[in-house]
Predict the structure.
Amino acid sequence: MTTVFEEIIAGVKDDVAAREAVVPFRDIKARSRDCEPPRDVMSALLAPGCQLIAEVKRFDPETGRIAYQEAPTELARQFEVGGAALIACHTEQRRFHGSLAEMADVRATVSVPILCRDFIIDPYQIHEARCFGADMIPLRVAVLDQPHLCSLLDRVESLGMAALVEVRNPEEAIRAIDAGASIVGVNARDFETMTLNRQAFAEIAPGLPSDVIKIALSGVRNAAELYEYASRGADAVVIGTSLVTAKSPLALTRALVSAAQHPACPSR
């Protein structure tokens, strides 16, 4: 029996093949190198305090379809006004109901960098995401063998983008560092079992080099949890569901950013 994770990856492979049949790799590669330069992810993440990466998403694997309070572009605008350092956009179609076109619309609405949230397994996706406005690309260690991880990491950086190398356990964290990752995201969600390990960041972050940017992903819901991650050394936290369903996304964004800038939080 296949797992949810295996189904996601199989779907991604099929969707990439279908898109590549329409726009060949050589064409998408050429287009990606003619785009405007990526926005500066590193400066955004290295600003004082713990940074908020606000996530635009239509579907949550734990709770199902999300009822938006605002249109995606309006959500992104409120996130930026509220102080979010980056905006994350889901582009995986089958499980998260995202799209590259929606990411492009969001990027055109805001001036902060854009994190593409997807399952990246093929060089085609990296060039494609750049064409649609991505400034930061996620690479999940669990999906990639080491040579593939290193190759995709090099490709992301060759296009001037930043790579968010996602890990779930100390063994994957070692692989991320060995590959040369300068930004490591600790994802509390295990897509093989669809469970959350809220202690994952505390277990992994202390073992990461001090010069590596550390990001906490999945299952962060409120200011108290953001502050807890920040106090444990998170340089940034990704928050999605609670923001897009908030009565006032702008007010909650401001509250989260305020918590992340608390004087008691460690600073680089």
About this structure: The mean pLDDT is 89. The CA atoms of residues 54 and 239 lie 5 Å apart.
